[in-house]
Amino acid sequence: MNHSELRVDEIRAYKQEWEGFVNEAKQTRPNILAVLNVYGTYEQIHSFRLLFQNSEGHIFLERLYHILDEPLDKGVDRCMSELEWLGPNITLALVDAPLPVEYCPCCEKSLANKVNLDVAEKILAR
Ligand SMILES: [Zn+2]
Question: Tell me: the pLDDT tens digits for 5-40?
Fold first, then answer.
C-alpha cells in the first residue's frame, strides 16, 4: 500500500499503534512476544521471520531475513541485536521446525505463524 492512499486519521492511528508498541516493548514485563519462524529444511534454512505479537494475537512488526541478502549466521546476529534493541525483556518463542511457506489467498503475501493465543498468554503470564 502506498502511503499517499492513507488518510490523515489512518496515518495517525498507525503512528499511535507504533509508538504504543515501542513503548510496551521497553517495559520490564512487556505484553509482547517475539516469535521466530524458520523456513526451509533442517539441511538448508533459506529464510526466517521475526514477528512481534501481543497476547491477543495482534502482530505489530514482522522482519524477514533471507540467505540471498546475507549469510545465515549474520542474519541471526542481526535479528538478535534488533530484538535486544527493541525490547531486551521480550521473550523469544521459536516455532521449532522449519515451516512451509504459505501465501495469503487474497494478496499473496507470505503468512506469518503466530503463537496460539493460549500459549502466548501462558508465556506472557510468567
Ligand atoms: Zn491478504
Answer: 889 999 999 999 999 999 999 999 999 999 999 999
Q: How far is the CA of 96 from the centre of ligand 1 (A)?
A: 25
Domain ranges across the chain: 3-124
**CB of 112 within 8 A of CB of 52?**
no
Rounded to two decimals, the pTM is 0.88
Do 99 and 69 form a contact (C-beta atoms < 8 A)?
Answer: no
How many angstroms is it from 34 CA to the middle of ligand 1?
22
